Amino acid sequence: MKLKFSPSMMLVNLLELRKEMDELTDAGCNSFHIDVMDGNYVPNITLGTMDIMAMNKVARLPLEVHLMVNEPINILGIFNLENVSTIMIHPETCTHLHKTVAGIKRLNKRAGLVLNPGSPLVYVTELISEIECVMIMSVDPGFAGQNFIDSTYDKVMRLKALIDSCNKQIEILVDGSISIKNIKRLVESGANGFILGTASIFQEGRDFKRNLDLLIEAIK
């Protein structure tokens, strides 16, 4: 699969939303990653409904929504927006995981599972025929700026082996402290999509094109 780079939209300057989304698009990003936190499942609150609707209006790239909320099935309809392509959920947040994934599919969106550092791969095994992507968290969810967890490499390799054994085409994304220090090894481990934050594209200076080019160069 082609490598995919998705900036975390909780780090954009909302006062210059259109400008920064255009700059990220022109820099070579492939989608926009939207973190939705409820202050309950994770101890933080991020982008709200109005923010996401504004992004939907100006986006030239697909929006991929990452729900860090309890019982996401109750709010799936909010994200039935034109430019939303994907909705990703944490298995631990769902009383009925299969039902929640089915709810995403009924909206004609790609469904994804998100695995925390301590979450087992068995969730993927049970739903591998129903999902289009799996995102491995390389930090505990909730805050930007955390340190990368080294066991992520092994988890990505085990996930890749599981997907290959089932002869499936499923994206493997990694979210959390992606940088020039770890991206090459993550690609070699089997990852093909990366959520970019303060350790990469949103580094000080916010030169999105330069920062993404450096990340891509580090893979070679």
Description:
The chain has an eight-stranded parallel sheet. The protein is α/β, with parallel strands linked by helices and 220 residues long. The protein contains seven helices and eight strands. Helix 6 links the parallel strand 7 and strand 8. It has one domain (4-219): TIM Barrel (Alpha-Beta Barrel). It is globular, with a radius of gyration of 16 Å. The model has no long low-confidence stretch (mean pLDDT 94). The longest helix is centred in the C-terminal third of the chain and has 14 residues, at 152-165. The protein has helices at residues 17-27, 49-58, 97-106, 122-127, 152-165, 183-189, 208-219, and strands spanning 4-7, 32-37, 63-68, 84-89, 110-115, 133-137, 171-175, 193-196.
Helix content range:
25-40%
Q: What would you call the quaternary organization?
A: single chain
Low-confidence stretches: none
Count the beta strands: 8
Structural class by SSE content? alpha/beta
- CATH topology-level name: TIM Barrel
CATH class category label: Alpha Beta
Number of helices: 7
Number of domains: 1
Nearest-angstrom radius of gyration?
16 Å
- Sheet with most strands: strand arrangement: 1-8-7-6-5-4-3-2
User: Describe the biggest sheet?
Assistant: 8 strands, parallel
Annotated CATH architecture: Alpha-Beta Barrel
Give the topology string: H per helix, E per strand: EHEHEEHEHEHEHEH
Topology (SSEs and partners):
Blueprint: E1 4-7, H1 17-27, E2 32-37, H2 49-58, E3 63-68, E4 84-89, H3 97-106, E5 110-115, H4 122-127, E6 133-137, H5 152-165, E7 171-175, H6 183-189, E8 193-196, H7 208-219
Parallel strand pairs: 1-8, 2-3, 3-4, 4-5, 5-6, 6-7, 7-8
Helix pairs in contact: 1-7
